[in-house]
From TrEMBL, chain A:
InterPro entries linked: Dimeric_a/b-barrel (IPR011008), YCII (IPR005545)
Membership in a protein family: Belongs to the YciI family.
Superkingdom of the source species: Bacteria
Natural source organism: Micromonospora luteifusca
Record protein name field: YCII-related domain-containing protein
Positions of the YCII-related domain: 1-98
Automatic annotation (TrEMBL), chain B:
Domain DUF6596: from-to ranges: 178-278
Any Pfam family the entry gives: Sigma70_r2
RNA polymerase sigma factor 70 region 4 type domain ranges (all copies): 109-160
Protein name per Swiss-Prot or TrEMBL: RNA polymerase sigma-70 factor (ECF subfamily)
Residues covered by the RNA polymerase sigma-70 region domain: 18-78
Family: Belongs to the sigma-70 factor family. ECF subfamily.
Organism: Micromonospora luteifusca
Domain of life, source organism: Bacteria
Keyword rRNA processing attached: no
Keywords: Sigma factor, Transcription, Transcription regulation
Length: 107, 411
């Protein structure tokens, strides 16, 4: 079962910036234990572009698809047997990243 | 005829959770398990009056429910699911032992009370899947529309399936944290029964307190060494023992000081005291008691007193002091202050209560307590204002009646 694990940051109270070494160590453990599928940090939402090509013309707009003080800062994809394993890892991930985490299953 | 009816009712109480749990294990699907169980009970209602009550109703119901489930899967499955169907239908292998205790019902409880589900969904699912209460019954109990409740349960079941919430007793290291969630659900059900929140329901819901006690007994049978499970059961029994003395014939709430103690249920008190003693032995051996055990001990002190004057208030205050260390909530502080009033007088208690205003200004019991303390201090006008506020905030009809009488007795 695969889960999308989103790291959520908050513009008004951002998480600490020195998390890289801890995240690397956590990632190595995910790989060693066979849960790792994919991961990546994202550039800021000001680097986002939204494309809408449902109409006659393609519309490009500058910025994220939803404006809010909370935004997606990075993602993992984990392969785990069930939600309990995902939640346990996510609780650790939240500590390691110093940010909120959303766990959502793939269909 | 009425014997058969009684047998069906008893089987429903005793076997519902077992049937649902065993089908959930076998088919891995809450919907199938629940609907097949309901069909099996409907069949029992038809068959038992004709064929007689089977010697082992539980086995009969499970077998019938399994057959119904298989019929249903056969009916609904599409061709490309044939393989899965074959597995479901013919898989009779015993379940792998998962978690620390292998009981289907225990797994079902932990699934229904999973922390990834919202609290109200946990309550509704537990009452439906384990208690066997119908949707209208649960909806009435929690004052929600039936459609709202149905959505809640449907959504919770869908989340269990889509997010893959496991049907499993948590591992030993996670068990204490997960049990506390289960106990919170059961305590919520009990409290809704003991002091119903709405103006449109009976002030005391016997069906809900009974159900909460029944489910807590089940947990205790499955986890006999968990102190908080025992504590919660003792707390419920000692509270339930006073139920009949708690509402007057005119429908008014009778507070502890005015209750007819002769009307308390002696058997429930004896059982509750026995459980509290069991925990005291454990505490003496160095096991620190949790919240429910302390609350049960407080209730044991109350139920040991022949009348209100006979109550060992210093013991009650000492127990609240212990509770404050575990739970620093303003509601605990408020209840402690009520006991302090008996020990050190209303003035000391009022000072403690007034400090809680910021946090409890919207809580009826805060104003009711202030009103009572102000009355005892002879400050009638302020007392009246506090009663007015309490009446405005209280939802329970018996409680409103009690507060109104007390206010009107002020001079």
């Amino acid at each position: 079962m695969q889960y999308l694990v989103s790291v959520i940051d908050d513009e008004s109270s951002p998480g600490s910036t020195d998390r890289r070494p801890a995240i690397s160590a956590f990632n190595e453990r995910l790989i060693a234990e066979g849960y790792w599928v994919f991961a990546g940090g994202l550039a800021g939402t000001d680097a986002a572009t939204v494309i809408d090509n449902r109409g006659e013309q393609t519309v490009f707009s500058d910025g994220p698809f939803v404006e809010s003080k909370e935004y997606l800062a990075g993602v993992w994809v984990w392969e785990v047997p069930d939600l309990d394993v995902a939640l346990k890892l996510a609780a650790e991930a939240s500590k390691v990243c110093d940010r909120k985490i959303e766990v959502r299953p793939f269909q | 005829m009425s014997d058969v009816k009684e047998a069906v009712t008893r089987a429903h109480q005793d076997e519902w959770a077992r049937v649902v749990a065993s089908l959930t294990r076998r088919f891995g699907d809450l919907d199938i398990a629940e609907e097949a169980a309901a069909e099996a009970f409907a069949t029992a209602v038809e068959r038992w009056p004709v064929d007689g009550v089977p010697p082992n109703p539980g086995a009969w119901l499970t077998t019938t429910a399994v057959r119904k489930a298989i019929d249903r899967i056969r009916r609904e499955n599409k061709r490309d699911d044939k393989h899965k169907e074959a597995q479901m239908v013919y898989d009779n292998t015993p379940p792998e032992p998962l978690g620390v205790i292998d009981d289907d019902r225990l797994r079902l409880i932990f699934t229904c009370c999973h922390p990834a589900l919202a609290m109200e969904a946990r309550v509704a699912l537990t009452l439906r899947m384990l208690g066997g209460l119908t949707m209208p019954e649960i909806a009435r109990a929690f004052l929600v529309r039936e459609t709202t409740l149905e959505q809640r349960i449907t959504r919770a079941k869908a989340k269990i399936k889509a997010a893959r919430i496991p049907y499993r007793v948590p591992a030993a290291e996670d068990l204490p944290a997960r049990v506390s969630g289960v106990l919170a659900v059961l305590y919520l059900v009990f409290n809704e029964g003991y002091l119903a929140t709405g103006p449109d329901t009976d002030p005391v819901r016997h069906d809900l307190t009974t159900e909460a006690i029944r489910l807590t007994r089940l947990i205790r049978a499955l986890l006999p060494d968990d102190g908080e499970v025992t504590g919660l059961l003792a707390l419920m029994l000692l509270t339930e023992a006073r139920r009949t003395a708690r509402v007057s014939v005119s429908g008014e709430l009778v507070t502890l000081d005015e209750q007819d103690r002769g009307a308390w249920d002696k058997a429930l008190i004896a059982e509750g005291h026995q459980l509290v003693r069991e925990r005291l032995v454990a505490a003496a051996a160095g096991v620190a008691p949790g919240r429910y055990q302390i609350l049960a001990a407080i209730n044991a002190v109350h139920t040991s007193a022949r009348d209100i004057r006979d109550t060992d208030w210093s013991q009650v205050v000492a127990l609240y002091d212990q509770l404050v260390h575990l739970d620093s909530s303003p509601i605990v502080a408020l209840n402690r202050a009520i006991a302090v009033a008996e020990l050190d007088g209303p003035e000391v208690a009022l000072a403690a209560v007034d400090r809680l205003e910021d946090e409890l200004a919207g809580y009826h019991a805060y104003h009711a307590t202030r009103a009572d303390l102000l009355r005892r201090l002879g400050q009638s006008q302020q007392s009246r204002a506090a009663y007015d506020k309490a009446i405005e905030l209280a939802g329970n009809t018996a409680q409103t009646a009690n507060l109104t009488r007390r206010r009107d007795q002020l001079r």
